Structure formats: C-alpha cells, structure tokens
Amino acid sequence: MIDQRALPSELVEIRTSDWRQVVDAVKTLAVRGAPAIGVAGAAAVMLAAYELAERGALAASPVWFAVRLREAARVIAVARPTAVNLSWGVNRALQVAAGALKAGKTPRQTAEALRELTGDLIVEDEAINRAIGAHGAALLAPIAAANERPLTILTHCNAGSLATAFYGTALGVVYAAAEQGLVERVYADETRPVGQGARLTVWELSRAGVPATLICDNMAASLMAAGRIDA
C-alpha cells in the first residue's frame, strides 16, 4: 500500500502481514478512495485468515476459525463506517471463506482462497476503471473536435490510481483522454480541508506526464465563468 499521508513530499510503501495495520491505514487515511478501501478490506480479511490458520490445534477446528474470522471482519468493516466499499470488500471475503469452509477446505486453504480473491478484485477493479476511462474519453472526443483543440479539464478531490486498485475512475477518464491527445491541461482543485487535489491528484498527474495546474477551491467558479474549463 502507498501511504497517502506522506504524499507528495515522500513516496512511502506500507508492507504488512498484520490485518490490524490495514485497519489502522484505513482509519488514518493512509489508504483512501472507495475502490482502494474495498480491496484493502478484502485483503485485511485474508491476512486475518492466515493469522488464524497458524493457531495450531485451535485452527484445526473450522467452526472456531469461522467464528474468529467473523470477529476480525467486524472490526475491519467499521474502520471507516462511511466507506460503503469497505463493507463490500469484507462481505465478498466472508462469502468466499464460507464457501471454502462449506466445501471442506482447511483454514489454510481458505486463506489461500481469500488471497486469490484479493488478486481477482485488483484485476477486476482495474478493468472496470479502464472501461470507465474509455467511455469517458469517447464523450470528450467530440467536444475537442468541435473546439478544434485539446481540452482543459477541472478535477476535484482524487479519483485516480491512488483511490483505486489502478488507473482511477474519474481521473481514469483524464488518463484515457490524455493518451488520445485530447487533454491540454488539468486544473486540479486543492480540495480542502484534507487537500486530496493538492497532495494527490497533482502528484499523480505529474507522474503520468499530464499537464496540471493546482488551483484553490474558490477559483473553480472564476475559471468556468471565464470559459477556461471545457469539462
């Protein structure tokens, strides 16, 4: 996981095998963005399953394992109550775990099934994001054609790779459009009070080679009134 609290001044990775550290990362906004939180939730359940599977004689009992896994899942699910994707990811993991145990899998095998699920969720999310990007860019292309020039785009908050498994939702549209030469410049709102636009979006765009200008939030209306924002 990238520790988003350290950006943009420092790129810090969080590597852990402890599900409690994932919970802390979600609580403290080290990991943020709905899709990213959803994947983190499933990954945390996976790590809890591996931990429980190593509990010796206790882990030999599927019933004990299932009860303890649900207890850990409840803690994970409330790490950020307003994030719908968190409970979604946790519930996906619990469904896979229940199915594995019902099929006679051992706790260790159940943890492996959850590891596979986590990988699948990452692949699934990137595919969805790239589809969003392609569809969004297709809507922007006629505007650029009518203007006979690339577009200036306004963004708010951060909905890019940092907020997802990869590529981004709203920012994925910008990436897809930029790949087609449709973007002249992005104006990124700072997004008070946490500053996701200032700290994260501008950092992402600069790394992707997309021209970006950081603006304070109350400049957005002025730029739109002046006709300097196309989308």
Tell me the overall shape. elongated
Overall helicity: 55-70%
CATH topology of the largest domain: Four Helix Bundle (Hemerythrin (Met), subunit A)
- What is the annotated CATH architecture of the largest domain? Up-down Bundle
CATH superfamily of the largest domain, by name, is: translation initiation factor eif-2b, domain 1
Spatially, the strands of the biggest sheet line up as 1-2-3
What profile does the largest beta sheet have?
3 strands, parallel
Provide the CATH top-level class of the largest domain.
Mainly Alpha
Radius of gyration: 21 Å
Count of discrete domains: 2
Q: What is the H-and-E element order?
A: HHHHHEHEHEH
Alpha-beta classification: mainly alpha
Strand content: 5-15%
Low-pLDDT windows of residues: none
In brief:
With 231 residues, the protein is mostly helical. The chain is 58% helix and 7% strand.
Give the tags.
231 residues, mainly alpha, Four Helix Bundle (Hemerythrin (Met), subunit A), 8 helices, 3 strands
Task: Describe what you observe in this structure.
This protein is mainly alpha-helical and 231 residues long. The protein has two domains: 19-126, Four Helix Bundle (Hemerythrin (Met), subunit A) (Up-down Bundle), CATH 1.20.120.420; 132-225, Rossmann fold, CATH 3.40.50. It contains eight helices and three strands, in the order αααααβαβαβα. Strands 1-2-3 form a three-stranded parallel beta sheet. Helix 6 links the parallel strand 1 (151-155) and strand 2 (183-189). The longest helix is centred in the middle third of the chain and has 41 residues, at 107-147.
